[in-house]
Amino acid sequence: MSNTAQNPLRLLPAPESATVELLYRIFGDVLIPLDKVREQYFRNLNEQSFVAEISSGRIQLPITTLDTSRKAPKYAHIRHVASLIDIRAYKADEDMQRQQEESTE
User: Fold this and answer.
1) Domain locations in the chain?
2) Are 60 and 66 in contact (CB under 8 A)?
3) Which residues touch 86 (CB under 8 Å, ≥6 apart)?
4) Disulfide: which of 4, 10, 82, 100 matches 20 by Cβ 3.0-4.6 Å?
């Protein structure tokens, strides 16, 4: 399903298989209900602000449904959640390295 209002998630780098496996152990499925993603990783956001952050592109997480109905449950694919986690971890590594280089100069 294509949603032209959302920014596409670039799976670069591809999610690590260990991250995908751990997420599968936590959630037990390849499609994770959006409310469970929010509860697990975005506790600081309520439902409306979480959806707004995704819609604005601040949280780059494609949303999918299995039905075309407006009331259809919304899901995030496990690879997209894993990729989001891994990308944020890589950025944290880069930020830490940059801070260390700045402090040694």
Assistant:
1) 17-98
2) no
3) 13, 15, 16, 19
4) 82
